[in-house]
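User: Please fill in residues for this 141-position structure.
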C-alpha cells in the first residue's frame, strides 16, 4: 500500500469455470473497488466502483472507450460490503460475488453524450486516461 492507502488484492478462479479469473482491488483510502475480469474467451474488462464520486465505470481492455453510469443504491450496498471486508474475509467476498453476482448488464450508450474527464474523480480519470468516456444507462434485457 502506498500513501496510506489500504489496498487489498485477491484473485479467485471460478470453480464452475476454471478459465474465468476475477481479481478485486479494494482501495479504502479512495473508497473504490476495482474488479478485473477475464472471460473464457480471454477477453478482459475492468469495472470500477467509485463511491466517493458516485460512479460505476466499465472498460474493456484493448478498447478505446470507457462507459460511465451513476451509482444506484444497490451498488453502494455492495461497495460498502467490499470496503468493510478485511483481508481475512476478502476471499469470501469473491466467493460470494462468484455465486450471486454473475449477471449481465445491458448498457445503452446515451447518444452524443461523451463526457469530459475533468470532475469525474481521480479513479475514473486514471482508468480512462487517453480514452473517450460515454454516459450509459442500464437497460432491461
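Assistant: Residues filled in for all 141 positions:
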Amino acid at each position: 500500500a502506498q500513501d496510506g492507502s489500504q489496498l487489498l488484492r485477491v484473485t479467485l478462479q471460478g470453480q464452475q469455470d476454471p478459465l474465468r479469473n476475477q481479481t478485486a482491488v479494494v482501495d479504502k483510502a479512495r473508497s473504490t473497488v476495482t474488479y478485473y475480469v477475464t472471460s473464457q474467451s480471454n477477453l478482459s474488462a475492468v469495472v470500477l466502483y467509485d463511491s466517493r464520486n458516485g460512479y460505476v465505470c466499465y472498460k474493456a481492455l484493448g478498447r478505446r472507450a470507457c462507459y460511465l453510469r451513476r451509482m444506484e443504491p444497490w451498488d453502494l450496498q455492495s461497495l460498502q460490503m467490499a470496503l468493510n471486508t478485511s483481508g481475512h474475509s476478502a476471499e469470501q467476498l469473491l466467493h460470494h460475488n462468484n455465486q450471486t453476482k454473475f449477471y449481465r448488464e445491458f448498457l445503452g450508450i446515451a447518444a452524443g453524450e461523451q463526457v469530459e474527464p475533468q470532475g469525474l474523480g481521480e479513479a475514473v480519470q486514471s482508468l480512462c486516461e487517453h480514452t473517450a468516456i460515454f454516459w450509459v444507462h442500464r437497460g432491461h434485457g
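For context: Residues 73-83 form the longest helix (11 residues).
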